[in-house]
Amino acid sequence: MGPLFPAWLKWQVDLTYLDISSTGITDRFPDWFSSSFSKITSLDISNNRISGALPKNMGNTSLGSLYSRSNNISGRIPQLPRNLEILDISRNSLSGPLPSDFGAPKLDMISLFSNYITCQIPLFVCELNLYSLDLANNLLEGELPQCFSTKDMAFLLLSNNRFSGKFPPFLENCTTLSFLDLARNKFSGTLPMWIGNLGELQFLRLSNNMFHGHIPNNITSLSKLYHLNLAANGISGSIPHHLSNLTMITTPYVHVPGAVVASFQSIVGDMPVVIKRQELEYKGVAILEILSIDFSCNYLTGKIPEEITSLGGLINLNLSWNQLNGGLPKKIGDMQMLESLDFSNNDISGEIPSSLSNLTYLSILDLSYNHLAGIIPSGVQLDTLYTEYPSIYNGNTGLYGPILHKSCSVNNNAPQRDHQQRSKKVSESTLFFYFGLGSGFVAGLWVVFCALLFKKAWRVAYFRFFDKVHDKAYVFIIVTWGRFARKR
Fold it and tell me: How would you describe this protein's topology in the membrane (predicted)?
């Protein structure tokens, strides 16, 4: 058994602040927890192995902030302290529905991600003036309460649940919203036009839902946006133009103000991001460094806007599994920060721009299963990528070049076509010859047969002729056999 709650804490009844995080405690909450810590306003017991349920009488304490992230706490959430403002019980094993009344009207930050909480969000949350709500990675379901009236919400993280309904309409009034994650749910309908009015949005992830319709053109008004993920929906239409208005992504390096860093560190936990063909987790402010656009697995059509190359700070660009056509942007080499580029499984045609060889940071490239043609640009990075991932050009029969050990398709195929044409002519001549021979033979037989059938004199002469031939052959064979026998 590991370390217990230190016994001497039982007598520290005047403590107002206590941090015993990451101390290896494997104990359950002691009976004296609520009475001894009745004056504590800030308690941090995160990153231990504390088990069992939260104390039922903790509502009697003076806690203003409770951090108990990454433990083994189970059971339901009890009545909370009335003065509680910050509640973080993420990465535990809490289960059951949320309480209908938290008992803490001052709550402005709730973080319960990665538990086993079920049922719907209670209407009580509508009475809270929330700044941050993180319920990601639970078993919550149903539609979101439409009574939200908070205008100060900056973080709403609801990914990987079973929420349904339309895009939350109450968000139209959340003009301070900077972090919105609704990924991996069952939301449906179209994206609202007013989404472009959420000018503080920095992170927008709506992937793996059932949204349809077009991408609102004014989404490019979100000048502070650095992460946009609409993958795996039913979105159609074209990619919006005026992408250069996404000024946060046009610059290679993001300068994050200190206040924002502090906010992210205390609120945003580990965030999974699909990049480089795998889901990677980034902690806190590190997510701000992943400038990404992912529109993959939709029904987008039309050309890739040339203006997309103005997004020089992008690290990840994924437009795969759509119905995009036209050519690749000629200045794609201007996106020199790209580490992952995926245009596979579209209807893109034309040549691969030579500027692609300028992307020296690329570690993932996939142009497979399009209609690309012409010579593949050469370069140290591109050659290395092909060596590691030889399938990156698959399904483009018109591509050639030294890297594929295939010369120009026109020269390669010309002799073969001449040979095929000559073979075809020979085959046709032979076919006509045998067809004529067979036809003549059949016609000759019919002439002889008809002549014998209708001319009696010819028929008698015909049979007499064969009788004479038969007699002569018989005499010849007998005489020859007799001579041969005498010689023996």
Answer: Single-pass type I membrane protein
